[in-house]
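Figure 6 in text form: structure in, sequence out.
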């Protein structure tokens, strides 16, 4: 059993990747400070409590567990928050990742998979976003991830780091088993927050902007099921273990849905309309982000098998009924 270090392994995407790793025959070693992660999400391997900024502990963990590769999910990831508190994002996402990379070098691990984001692109022309586009992020969250990608490119050239930067679009859904799902406080993501509104936990649910240059005026995003994201990480890991140098790849479906289309799908699944109000656009939110996933398909062999909107909504709703029982 080969051991894979998973920073942020007690979080939403990290925990799903731990499950996928275990099912693929690896042992995930979760490394998490539990500030936003959940101890009970660590089910498929050991937990090391620690911060990614602790270079020595990272190095010791890599050596103690004979880690063959690292998947890095530990990051702050709220676009709106990054605009009002950029220092938090640069300290954690940028400085923290630098410390992590230094610890990995000291511990002797040279295979790395970064949880990156479609936010590195910023405002783009309409149409599918390919990796050939220039990255011009418009918020500190996207900027912090783009800076890390640039650092990884330099580490690849200077130190022989083999690394994939996987640019997620909108992660959503929950594991079909119902044992893990999206659980944040505060919750800001559209699908989860809409479902919490149906359950009486988010009475102030709002659509942020209905004046975008889109068919119905609401922002369009590419929604990808977290189970598909996890599968992509395992594919990338296998390539690294075979000697692949890595690269930057979009993880999405190639199809976009507006906020109002997503709310309609939730109403169809639950039989209840989500109550909402309109608020101004949030700073840093582009009108449309839809991935061109062809490069990931060709290189990783990645196909999104669970990311049709109905499956996403159904799995998320099943999880929310378990995790957030409706208020009486």
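Output sequence:
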């Amino acid at each position: 059993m080969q051991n894979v270090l998973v920073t942020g392994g007690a979080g939403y995407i990290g925990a799903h990747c731990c499950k996928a790793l275990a099912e693929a025959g690896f042992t995930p070693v979760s490394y998490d400070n539990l500030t936003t992660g959940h101890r009970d999400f660590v089910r498929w391997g050991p937990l090391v409590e620690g911060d990614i900024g602790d270079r020595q502990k990272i190095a010791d963990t890599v050596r103690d567990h004979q880690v063959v590769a690292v998947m890095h999910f530990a990051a702050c990831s709220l676009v709106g928050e990054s605009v009002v508190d950029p220092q938090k994002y640069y300290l954690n996402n940028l400085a923290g990742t630098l410390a992590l990379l230094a610890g990995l070098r000291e511990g002797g691990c040279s295979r790395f998979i970064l949880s990156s984001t479609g936010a590195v692109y910023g405002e783009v022309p309409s149409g599918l976003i390919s990796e050939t586009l220039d990255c011009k992020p418009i918020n500190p969250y996207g900027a912090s991830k783009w800076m890390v990608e640039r650092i990884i490119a330099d580490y690849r050239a200077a130190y022989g780091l083999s690394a994939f930067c996987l640019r997620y679009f909108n992660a959503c859904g929950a594991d079909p088993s119902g044992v893990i799902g999206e659980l944040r406080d505060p919750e800001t993501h559209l699908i989860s927050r809409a479902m919490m509104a149906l359950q009486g936990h988010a009475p102030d649910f709002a659509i942020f902007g209905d004046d975008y240059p889109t068919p119905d005026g609401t922002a369009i995003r590419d929604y990808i099921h977290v189970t598909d994201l996890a599968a992509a990480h395992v594919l990338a890991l296998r390539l690294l273990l075979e000697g692949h140098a890595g690269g930057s790849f979009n993880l999405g479906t190639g199809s976009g849905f507006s906020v109002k289309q997503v709310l309609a799908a939730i109403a169809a699944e639950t039989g209840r309309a989500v109550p909402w109000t309109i608020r101004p656009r949030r700073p840093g939110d582009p009108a449309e982000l839809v991935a061109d996933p062809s490069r990931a398909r060709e290189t990783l062999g990645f196909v999104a098998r669970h990311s049709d909107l109905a499956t996403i909504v159904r799995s998320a709703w099943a999880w929310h009924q378990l995790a957030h029982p409706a208020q009486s």
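Caption detail: The chain has two domains: 3-172+222-251, 190-221+254-323.
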